[in-house]
Write a structure and sequence with these properties.
Elements (H helix, E strand, L loop, with lengths): L1 H20 L8 H21 L5 H22 L7 H20 L6
Helix pairs in contact: 1-2, 1-3, 3-4
């Protein structure tokens, strides 16, 4: 269970970092750039702790899928970026794949 808490924290850090990436304006803005770098380093640090108890493929699948969903929400609410139906369907397919892995795969039990 604690490994999934590390993974959740890694996902939140990654989402925070990615949400500031656009604000860095190609790393020309120091404060957003620092936030991005610190959040991403924190994300990978926390992900490395999650890997002690969750297989790397499973961890990465969850990390990337959750990150896609969360950053899409940030894009929508913060940057006013819209998703069309094919994009939403694609994101739902990614989430469905992660759910299949977690619900039915024996690979998740490390």
């Amino acid at each position: 269970m604690k490994y999934y808490l590390f993974l959740a924290a890694a996902i939140l850090c990654e989402t925070l970092g990615t949400s500031f990436l656009k604000k860095t304006e190609q790393f020309s803005k120091p404060i957003p750039s620092i936030i991005f770098v610190v959040a991403m380093v924190g994300s990978f640090y926390l992900l490395s702790h999650a890997l002690k108890g969750i297989p790397i493929g499973i961890s990465y699948a969850i990390w990337s899928a959750a990150g896609i969903v969360l950053i899409s929400l940030v894009g929508y609410f913060v940057y006013n970026e819209k998703l069309d139906i094919p994009a939403i369907i694609g994101i739902l397919l990614i989430v469905s794949g992660v759910l299949v892995i977690n619900l039915f795969s024996k690979s998740t039990s490390h």
